[in-house]
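Hi P.,

Sorry for the delay on this. The queue was packed all week, but I finally got your sequence through. Input first:
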Amino acid sequence: MTANRRPGSAPGNRELQLWKVGWALTVVFVSAVLVAGGIFSSLVYLLDFQELDSTAKLDAKTLFDLVKLSFGVVAGAGALVALVVAYRRQRVDEAGAHREATRLHTERFSQAVDKLGSDSPAVRLGGVHALAGLADDAPDDNLRQTCIDVLCAYLQLPFTPDPGDDPAHQAEHHHYLALRKVRHTIMRLICDHYRRPRGTRGSWQGCDLDFTGVIIDGRMDFSGAEFSGGTVSFDGAEFSGGSVIFERATFSGSSVSFVGAVFSQGSLVDFDYAVFSDGRVGFDGAKFSGGTVAFRDATFSGGLVIFDYAAFCAGYVPFDRATVAGPGGVSFSSTAFSGSAVSFRGVAFAGGEAHFERAKFSKKSVGFVDVTFSGGWVSFCDAVFSDGAVTFKDATFSGGQVSMSFMGATGAAPSGLLAAAGTPPSSEVALPADWLPSPPY
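Then the structure:
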């Protein structure tokens, strides 16, 4: 995965783009003459010296003033030459300092990576802290991203599962716990640095984080972090009892991806009180066989959370008291709900969108209890419902510009939907013909 790197900004391609001395002197001298001429003309105009006496004679005092002016011009030209030379020397010194800093960084980087390959967990732990320090001291963003990539790559490496605490495997068990400590330390350091405000020393916000295929069996705390750039990928990750906390985080431009991730019993991904004003959080094709992914009290005012083609066979996904009030929203298109619970209790749909097209609901799976619909678009087109799988108990349509469509849906009407839609149903709610109550109403 690459960082936010600009072409030509790599350390190896860093070259000074300086003009030749002759060109630089010519340009600077001509610019100085033009500026001096402009200032002189402005002064003449402001002082109202718009006519010169053509009969004036060149006396000794005037001749002496011209001589002084000539020497002043020569001295000014010399100063300009000195200025150009000093500028070039300063740029060369800066480039040399950067090359030296890069060289030292590379040496320290190599030593830290060597430590990560050690057989001793303690030495590996030292290499982890060394890489984190290198990322903080990196001369440029590309070198910082390289250190972060190595830390993420370590988490992606396969490892031997825990053999258990059987006395016959005690040494292997202790070795597993020691290496697990190294992995958890990497997770903690990455999160600690990502929570620091952008622009402060040690902040990794805006950098890419690649946790593709990583087994998350520990805690990762991104609470209060701002995701306004870069890409964070948990694609194909396995959450087996670990937790990733995004509580009160702000998503305003970056992409956070859980595509194909697997959530098993005891795992937790927490987006409570998070703000989605831009960007994308994707759970496309994820598998929920346990655990919780929570969006309680979250605000969707532009960002989008997508669960398309996900499979919910267990687990819990609460959106309780969330607010959907902007062009963003949530999407569960073509998702299968077969035993998990997804709750929208108390959610206010004041704008935004919720997509459940072609979703399949079986067992008691999705609840819109106490939901208020006052704007936006909610679609269940072509969805398949089994009896009691979805409830709209105590839902309210407040008469705003909300549009809800169940056209093409099959199965039993969701519990409480007809009562919430009114009799006859609101014109904003499109229902299949076989769900409509028979007149007279």
